[in-house]
Amino acid sequence: MNKSTWLFFLFILICLSCARKEERISNARKFIAEWNYDRALTEIISLRKNKDSEIQYIIGYCYLRKNEYAEALDYFAASLAIDTTFKDSIIRIYNALSQNALKINEPERALFLHQEIAKLVPEYEQTSNLFLIGDLNFENSNHEAAIRAYRRALQIDSTSKDARNAKPNLIRALAATGDYSPALSMALAEYEKLKTAANLLLVSEIQLSLGTKHFTAGILDSAEIYFGHIIANGEPKSMLDDAYFYTAEIYYARSNFDVALELYKKVVRLDPYQKGEMTQKAKERIKEIKEKK
């Protein structure tokens, strides 16, 4: 066989090989469209060592849909190592699965899927995902992780709807970790920008927490200041009885029983059904003070 003939046969073999590869890819995609991932894998797995990003991507996709995450990660990584043709598709797939996990109340799985994206595409910093990771951690009381995610996201985007929705959670997460100073500063800044009932509630939550913290520590003057802010605002109603009761307790501790008595009476008047915990405690104090006179 001369060289020309040999080259011709080699060309034919290459063409046949390419044709078979394209046929297998086409068949695999057909089975994927039918949600038959096992059959799709059977069709294409023999090509797993092929340095073709599409083949690696298809195999990874099949494993992901079969919930075999380690295998999916390996093949997606192999696809991206060859070229980045399927990078956006890989991100979209994980995002879609994460959203589905949230819809069926599986936040841990949603978070895991976003972490898989970060492994495959480290530079991927889409803020919506960071906000989502913050939300998932916040809902699971992983406050420090939530704070990290929210702060990173807000460095990129501080004005979108996602950012506005995230700020109250960030503030509450900061308060939950005992980082009250930045929490209160941020809450007050948000209230100054928009004086809504929701923003006032957030400020009052932190002021009440700070007030009770100082009260428990015996730092009564500071405690009175924080409770006084809530009383001065007259809102939210849900915290007024706490603020009045603790302020009454401060005056009771100072033996200023006349002022304490009036404050305890306010607690009682704030509760039309007379069943609240603070109401019962206030009634007991009123009885004590009257017995002292």
Write structural notes for this entry.
This protein is an all-alpha fold. Helices cover 80% and strands 0% of the residues. The chain contains 15 helices and no strands. It has helices at residues 3-33, 37-44, 53-65, 69-82, 87-103, 107-120, 127-139, 143-156, 161-176, 180-193, 197-216, 220-233, 237-253, 257-269, 277-292. Helix 11 packs parallel to helix 13 (237-253). The longest helix has 31 residues, at 3-33.
The main sheet comes to: none
What value does the Rg take, in angstroms?
Answer: 31 Å
The ordered string of helix (H) and strand (E) elements is HHHHHHHHHHHHHHH
Helix and strand content put the structural class at: mainly alpha
Please indicate the percent range of residues in DSSP E strands (runs of 2 or more): under 5%
Distance between the termini: 124 Å
Number of strand segments: 0
Q: Tally the helices: what do you get?
A: 15
Shape: elongated
Helix coverage percent of residues? over 70%
Average of per-residue pLDDT values: 86
Secondary-structure map:
Elements (H helix, E strand, L loop, with lengths): L2 H31 L3 H8 L8 H13 L3 H14 L4 H17 L3 H14 L6 H13 L3 H14 L4 H16 L3 H14 L3 H20 L3 H14 L3 H17 L3 H13 L7 H16 L1
Helix pairs in contact: 1-2, 1-3, 2-3, 3-4, 5-6, 6-7, 7-8, 7-9, 8-9, 9-10, 9-11, 10-11, 11-12, 11-13, 12-13, 13-14, 14-15
